[in-house]
UniProtKB/TrEMBL annotation:
Catalytic activity: biotin + L-lysyl-[protein] + ATP = N(6)-biotinyl-L-lysyl-[protein] + AMP + diphosphate + H(+)
KW Phosphoprotein (keyword) present: no
Name of the protein: Bifunctional ligase/repressor BirA
Binding region for DNA: 19-38
Organism encoding this protein: Desulfotomaculum copahuensis
HAMAP family: Bifunct_BirA (MF_00978)
Family membership noted in the UniProt record: Belongs to the biotin--protein ligase family.
Entry GO terms, CC: cytoplasm
Function in brief: Acts both as a biotin--[acetyl-CoA-carboxylase] ligase and a repressor.
Length: 321
């Protein structure tokens, strides 16, 4: 019900909406309206009240509330259900629990902060309150588990497009799915799969996108390797607007992948790549190689030209440029 009051205030913005009009439109008492206004103020909405004019919205909090994300979101699938939390250990962990309880395809889990954000290869992910997008999307792709790995590169394409379009940064993709700006990491993606031999139960795509962190917000050990939109452009960006762009792009590329396969996604991935054509070092869990990152194959594996001329196919690992 407080969402309906908010909708009316937004419709009336920047003017006043009378208490009586709200009561009439929602079929509730003056006391009920007042209670909802109080709840909205507690959630951070600025609402002016004037005895004869009614209520007027004066500001919207910088929070990733479900109703703010959903307002005007053009997607049908991704973000069809949104769970917002002030604080979580890890959105991937909560998404996994929700997926086990039948959360539908496209469900979004988002938190203002993570106290135990997880990264790839057992690392952590720094996720301070209100400074970025820390979120996970639950998917149920109707494919065999062996065909799921491209989804992690697909997510990178989606976030890269969204950052270029909605945040004005020239992000590029380091194989397989790190997003860099000027050589520093701005977004990391952690994809986790729950599957049986021939069937995917669910897949979680967790995205950590650094938006409004200053250099001073970053722990000293990350300052040389990490960046944010604010650091790169000097301007803070609307977290809601960037998240809406991410969800929109994710839906576009996901539906295209289901319909036409991985080739169109891979073509865009190559356009965004900052790895291909460069000398790199690749470390897997057991080995490491240096060579020229020549290409990726049709499944997204990195094709590395070793100094002796051999072409080495790498399916997982960490690239250093
Ligand atoms: C990486 O190491 O590059 C991947 C980082 C992924 C971080 C995101 S933040 C939201 C989601 N929840 C997590 O615990 N991790 C992912």
């Amino acid at each position: 019900m407080k969402e309906s009051v908010l909708r009316l205030l937004k419709k009336g913005y920047p003017g006043f909406v009378s208490g009586e009009a709200i009561c009439r439109s929602l079929g509730v008492s003056r006391t009920a309206v007042w209670k909802h206004i109080r709840a909205l103020r507690e959630a951070g909405y600025g609402i002016e009240a004037q005895p004869h004019a009614g209520y007027r919205l004066i500001n919207i909090p910088d929070r990733l509330y479900a109703e703010e994300i959903a307002a005007g979101l053009p997607t049908g699938l991704i973000g069809c259900r949104i769970y917002h939390y002030t604080s979580l250990v890890s959105t991937n962990r909560t998404a996994r629990e929700l997926a086990g309880r039948e959360a539908p395809d496209g469900t979004l889990v988002v938190a203002e902060e993570q106290t135990g954000g997880r990264g790839r290869l057992g690392r952590g992910w720094y996720s301070p309150c209100g400074k970025g997008i820390w979120c996970s999307v639950i998917l149920h792709p109707p494919v065999n588990p062996v065909d799921a790995p491209p989804l992690t590169m697909l997510a990178a394409v989606a976030v890269c497009s969204a950052l270029r379009r909605a945040a004005g940064v020239e992000a590029g993709i380091k194989w397989p799915n790190d997003l860099l700006v000027n050589g520093k990491k701005i977004c990391g993606i952690l994809t986790e799969l729950s599957a049986e031999m021939e069937r995917i139960n669910f897949l979680i795509t967790g995205m950590g996108i650094n938006l409004n962190l200053t250099a001073a917000d970053l722990p000293a050990e990350l300052r040389t390797t990490a960046t944010s939109v604010l650091i790169e452009t000097g301007r803070p960006v609307s977290r809601v607007a960037v998240l809406q762009a991410v969800l929109t792009e994710l839906e576009h590329w996901y539906l295209l992948w289901l319909q036409d396969g991985f080739a169109p996604v891979l073509a865009r991935w190559k356009e965004f790549s900052v790895t291909l054509g460069r000398p790199v070092r690749v470390a897997s869990l057991k080995e490491s190689w240096t060579g020229l990152a020549e290409d990726v194959d049709e499944n997204g594996a990195l094709l590395l030209r070793l100094p002796a001329g051999e072409l080495k196919k790498v399916v997982s690992g960490e690239v250093s440029l």
